[in-house]
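Ticket #4471: structure output looks truncated?

Reporter: J.K.
Steps to reproduce: submitted the chain below (593 residues) through the standard prediction queue, then opened the result file.
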Amino acid sequence: MADYKAPLRDLQFVFDEILNYEQHYEKLGFGDDASPDIVSAVMEEGAKFCENVLAPLNQSGDAGCTWDDGVVTTPEGFKAAYEQYVEGGWASMSHTADFGGQGLPESMGICLSEMCGSANWSWAMYPGLSHGATKTVKLHGTDEQREIYLYKLIEGSWTGTMCLTESHCGSDLGMLRTKAEPVDDGSYRITGTKIFISAGEHDIAENIIHIVLARLPDAPAGTKGISLFVVPKFIPNAEGAVGERNSLACGAIEHKMGLHGNATCVMNFDGATGYLIGPANRGLNCMFTFMNAARIGTAVQGLAHGELGYQKALAYAKDRLQGRKLSGADNPDGSADAIINHADVRRMLLTQKAFVEGARMLIYYLAQCVDIEAHGDDDNEMNEAGELLALLTPIAKAFITETGFESANLAMQCFGGHGYIKEWGVEQNVRDARIATLYEGTTGIQALDLLGRKVLLTQGESLKRFTKIIHKFCKAHAEDEALKEFIAPLAQLNKEWGDLTMHVGLAAMENPDEVSAASVDYLMFSGYVTFAYFWARAAQTALASDQSSEAFYQSKIKTARFYFQRVLPRTEGLVRTVKAGGKSIMSFELDEF
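Returned output as attached by the reporter:
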């Protein structure tokens, strides 16, 4: 069975041809450090690491981590792979040079994350969570905290976590009970239990830096009374090296559906020494720095599982002989035809391909916005990038993880009964993919954030910022006959997006429950339209290429056509369910369920 191969040609198409990353990097001052040759070399070397080191550990890592009296041991090979990752400088690649990073743009780090995650998402989570911890300390920590923690986190010798939720509160963080008692030396004693802490304990790095939400003694109730603390596993000594063990421990690791190679921990803080980050009682605001970065990372997870499933399904469909092509045998001298000749198998493969490549275009568009917001020198452009990120991040997180899980399921379906057994690795990919729709806020929470906070709360202004971009693209290509099959339906759906928003907004003025009732269907509609915009751009780019007749570019044009004809019509049903309103949902009394 074919192992993971980094899709370098597809990455190059998105980077160089659709999104013009060369011009993007030059404008931000990265022209020398992130020239096309350097970007290509980084991708190629990253691909070798992911294909040769991480991918072989993916299926064996499914055996899982082990826990023994608070000590967690990762699967065989994980620690050595992490050491090779750090030695290769991958951990520091997209961090600023002032704390030991290589100073390359964050979009290149996201590219590496895609390849690592597709090869082995369980392993990729160990270094992946450190990025959010690093960003949180850098933006909200004191100068002393930055000096103590950032060099080690950026070089990769220490890793980071985010410790938010507790067993009784889930996503309602206003209910959390973990306490922070002030100490005379300026530190705090952190006491409480956190659950679902990915990479909370392991053996691959010398120290783990926990970013923890807790309450001060005089804190007001609810989310306005939450503060943020850095709580190291080992307290750094005066020289900045690991010192005494802190009063915290992993009480257990969860027995979970998938991602067994990554330890999901119950973390007990028993008067552990912690240090306040940011203003008191403003911890949730600071934590959103971490959470927003993690939401884009989780969108990458949806892409990764979709990509891995598609690669496995495509290779299997080309090799597996079963049945005959209805319009005539493709392999008349053999016992049967390869199943890729069957139209329904092609439907499943092309759905995966359309979702995976659509996700890649959206994610790297967001990555450009991340770069601009972090490194731009034009306030208007930086604000524009930030507003686009705010709108599109919940769409990317929820829609890409939902379609990524659908893609993983379709890959398993392509295998038939063989997909249900462990040998091929596709059932593992389905199990691993399922959590992505739950991480960093479920699809429902992302949908409420999109429709309630990002769209209706701004009276549609944030949405207009993106629909204007689509409108300008459609207007620019309205007379292009070769693109008419894409431009006309995209323009119509773009208008309908605004009309649907107005419909929900008016309904919500009479009954706020209408927002919740419509939100997930609204988000999915938004995702399909967003992907349609990028597939129209892909088709336009392919048609404009001097090599447009080559198979690679023809594949892009035909996949765009498939998406518009066979996937995009799902929006019609979503419009109907959104407009049906919430009465049929909310009319039930509790004893009627």
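Triage note (M.O.): checked the attachment and the full token line is present. The chain has a mean pLDDT of 95.
Status: closed, working as intended.
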